[in-house]
Amino acid sequence: MNILLDTMGGDNAPGAMVYGALDAIKEQGDFEITLLGDRRSIEDILINEEYDKSRLHIRHTTQEITNNDKPTRAIKTKQDSSMVVGFNMLNNKEGDVFISTGSSGALLIGAITILKRIPGIDRPALGSVIPSKKGRVLLVDSGLNMTCRPDHYEQFAYMGSAYMKAVFGIESPRIGLVNVGTEEEKGTTVIKEANKLLRGSHLNYVGYIEGKDLFTGVADVIVTDGFTGNVILKLIEGASKFIFSGLKNVLYESWRSKISALLLKKGLTSFKKSLDPDVNGGAPILGVNGLVIKSHGNSTAKTIKHVILKADALARSTYMDDIKNELEHLHNDKTEVLVVKE
Amino acid sequence: MNILLDTMGGDNAPGAMVYGALDAIKEQGDFEITLLGDRRSIEDILINEEYDKSRLHIRHTTQEITNNDKPTRAIKTKQDSSMVVGFNMLNNKEGDVFISTGSSGALLIGAITILKRIPGIDRPALGSVIPSKKGRVLLVDSGLNMTCRPDHYEQFAYMGSAYMKAVFGIESPRIGLVNVGTEEEKGTTVIKEANKLLRGSHLNYVGYIEGKDLFTGVADVIVTDGFTGNVILKLIEGASKFIFSGLKNVLYESWRSKISALLLKKGLTSFKKSLDPDVNGGAPILGVNGLVIKSHGNSTAKTIKHVILKADALARSTYMDDIKNELEHLHNDKTEVLVVKE
Fold first, then answer.
1. Which listed site, A49, A303, B289, B299, has its alpha carbon 20 to 30 Å from B187?
2. If pLDDT is split at 50, 70 and 90, which confidence band does B342 have?
3. Is B230 in contact with A254 (CB distance < 8 Å)?
4. Nearest chain B residue to A237, by CA
């Protein structure tokens, strides 16, 4: 198992990636990591560290794709960037999974043009894991496709279902579609059409899901467009910060409350940790021929370590086969619809 | 000051409305309330209560508009429904503000067809108050218009600005536009066009605002389409419930934590209360000739009491004049754009 790690991009490059990789190989013993980026910057960090040199490699690259680059042009012209080299190595089977904190737009274009889409998928999508009362929930699309056709939502559902089955072992993942109410006539025309497609699919579709029910565990996969998905993901982050900061004020307002704060410290820390997006292992780009994981721009070494460990598990899972099998159903669904129409 | 209160519709009708009205007149002394609905059901509750009879009136109506009715048809045909009678009384100056927990769709249609839109407004919108680190923030549209044109966002911004100025006394309310990032090139085509219109307006526009910054107080008015707004509003409710329920588990897991729970009770209760949507006083339908406030379907007597007190303050404010003055600027903005184009 070889994990390809882009050390360019993000706010804490390359330190967060290099230290994250070191922590990951210390924590688990059965994979190798190839660090992609500027050899000298990487070696400057590694020189002071002790680690198993047979498990950590460097692939020197000379270019960087930034958030200011136009994605399509950058992927085309920056052939020796850490990102393009990563995609090419993944494509040539020189690695099993590619992790990057770089520009979402460039990652999407790279994934589409170099790895290519899985047949049946028009729009690859980002899947992000969010917490819920009954375990983890996958939010698809959480930020790549700003506007969607009804059949795109259906594709997101198939990809999300395959992912939750392979990675979290859920037999028949329940799919929910984000809407403004649960009654059939609610929402936009596009959402109502997507609802019809999902009702007619082979998926375990449970219907519309409202904002207030995202955390109640009524679905394992929550499907939405990338605009709404991004707002949801960041709103969860903001709401959690807002509430915990208010809570902190309550805990430190008097000597009585400070005593309580001490007594509660362990429980509160572990609860807060369960909400921490850092431990959820990054967001997979679903729907392309290869495993690509996007980690957020302000990832720390801790984030990267968790992403590497989850990526290793994902690469060992049956996800790539599962998603192709699931998409057979999507083809069948479409054929049936066509037959009915004729 | 006469407040018109629809006692039909919602999960707790008519009890929540009647008790809420009784509590409101007991708490403050300078307005009257007219209860609209079935006289007998209302009197069955009032008969056991002591109150100032000169301040609480009943206007008997015989019909009800439910969530299952088609809004346009219902407003047209159910002329003796509590909702249509309420709109007509408001229109005839027999009341100063109309409060209802009924169907959003019917309220919107009633407001548009009976009260009419303020010139310059194409799409009336729902404004909901959400908490933030630095006071209250108005979210417009929080649920009426599923898809919007760029100029609709600009109208929402003008209406929200006037509301925050009149009701919360904010001199020059800061306007933010919900998007997936803060860079100019982010988002959908419609959002990018709305951004340009807002930049060219007379408003105090601060630019794009991401989900994670909704609570940081960087804007006083947050503008979005009704689909995203509804998801945001309900997500805040869900996230708050989810986090407080996790917190409850932490507080009751051991004898040590139970002691802390006792010491923290007062602080926690008051913090939780500050997040409670019930104390925010309902959501105004902005952009029509008259003050209409929608309270959510599961409003309790406590909710209704708060909505009545806020409605009274709104009716005494300069809001209706302010919004018309603000819209003068909107007309001027448009004229300027036309002049530039010619």
1. A303
2. very low
3. no
4. B212
| Cα-Cα end-to-end distance for chain B | 49
Of the candidates A143, A146, A178, the beta carbon closest to that of B231 is on: A178
Q: How far is B138 from chain A (nearest CA, A)?
A: 16
Task: State the best of A153, A235, A245, A275 to mutate against chain B, taking most chain B CBs within 10 Å.
Answer: A235
| pLDDT given at position B136 | 87
What b-and-e string marks burial along A133-168, b requiring 16 or more CB atoms within 10 Å of the CB?
eeebbbbbbbbbbbebbbbbbbbbbbbbbbbbbbbe
Q: Which residue of B has its CA nearest to A209?
A: B231
Determine the residue of chain B that is closest to A274 in CA distance: B246
pTM for the structure as a whole: 0.89
Between CA B282 and CA A42 the distance in angstroms is 56
What tens digit of pLDDT does each residue of B191-247 get? 999 999 999 999 999 999 999 999 999 999 999 999 999 999 999 988 888 888 888
Angle at A165 between CA A162 and CA A166, to 5 degrees: 85
ipTM: 0.88
How does pLDDT run across A331-340, given as a tens digit for each residue? 666 555 444 4
pLDDT in tens, A72-92: 999 999 999 999 999 999 999
State how beta strands A137-140 and A125-130 pair: antiparallel
